[in-house]
Amino acid sequence: MKRAVLETLTLWAGLLLCGGLALLLLSLNPGRRWMGSQTGETDFLPQIKGVTDLAGKMLRPRPQLDPQGAMEHADVSPFGVNVFLEQEVEPTKRERAVQLAAQAGFKWLRQEFPWEDIEVHGKGDFEDRRHEPARSSWEKYDHIVDLASQYNMNLIVRISNPPAWSRAEGNEAGSYAPPDSYQDFADFAGAIADRYRGRVQFYQLWNEPNIYPEWGNFPIDPEAYVELLKVGAEAIRAVDPDAVIIAGALAATVDLDGTTVPGRSFSDLLFLQRMYDAGAASYFDVMATQGYGLWSGPTDRRMHPRVMNFGRPQYIRDLMVANGDGHKPIWISEMNWNAAPSDVEPRYGRVSLEEQSRNLPLAYGRIIDDWPWLGVANVWYLKRATDLWERNRQPEAYFRLLAPDFTPQPVYESVKAFIASVGSQD
């Protein structure tokens, strides 16, 4: 009996000694670098937890990514950036923003063409009478299209934000809520495609339809979104057969009650499966998702359906392959890490300016090296026209590459250097 107890104690002592030695080795610089490369964590204890999470990953089915599947719109330059050019009052500032994006090496501009800002006062009314003198509401969007062409950049035109007149409840239904008549949306999408045929090819229909408040104050409705996508895609393709339709970017969330409770969100993975079940595959050429790193870095290899990290697009890809849609790529609509100061709520995680400037090139490197099924990845975002977000201490302000006065942030310089080092990959 005593011998058995002694052997047990010896075994435990050996295990503890081995564990202690393992922790010691991991705590040294090579071990820390390896853990960081696998978990995306920079601090020691989160790295240790991350390694245990990776061990748990072995017990779950691996996403089926079908990396050999032939696809269109994947072999393109991955370097895109979100811009708010419509908010710049002065045309010279619009041009300066595009010029700085081009100088950084970006090849894509993701720009919203807000429905409420173009068909402002009523159906078929494209005159802007919100100021004197009245002018064509197309004027600044024509300029944006001209600038993209001038600087040899591709536009991803996001169509969203219906005007209040398109809903009986107006903005009481939520300023982003879908219109009462989806045909109104289709007519507007068709009008954009008709005006810019031959100059704009890529259209994204809606943004984040699976989360509040992007579907207004209504419960999230995948089937309704598919109907909106269908009529919009058909209207665009009717006037421009060469148009490429991008699905609304899905936001990563694990919420499950958004389809029954107004003001809530709904899992991106369940939303996408219901899109497929409703016949969505015929109405988009490119799937879109968001690519925020949130609380860990771009090298985080952990995979769990209830964990939000940079690797989550692999689950979207897995669903696409399972639904026979592996011939289509994923594009990331928004990607970055948030460098919020210590006095700003870390709603989207928090990294230092140095970490942000390191993470974004690493993210592009992972996309280029590991994800051949992913095409464009658009950084969120180049700049805002004003410092309103900063003055209100909103964390959204600290994804920026340029300050509102065009001052480059460290991340702008690091991405510019990275793009130059690998080439633009046209």
Automatic annotation (TrEMBL):
GO BP, one annotated term: polysaccharide catabolic process
Superkingdom to which the source organism belongs: Bacteria
Keyword Hydrolase tagged: yes
InterPro entries: GH, Glyco_hydro_5, Glycosyl_Hydrolase_39
Gene Ontology molecular function: hydrolase activity, hydrolyzing O-glycosyl compounds
Coiled-coil residues: none
Domain Glycoside hydrolase family span(s) in chain numbering: 77-262
Record's keyword terms, sorted: Glycosidase, Hydrolase
One Pfam family of this chain: Cellulase
Entry annotated with the keyword Cytoplasm: no
Protein name: Glycoside hydrolase family 5 protein
Family recorded in the similarity comment: Belongs to the glycosyl hydrolase 5 (cellulase A) family.
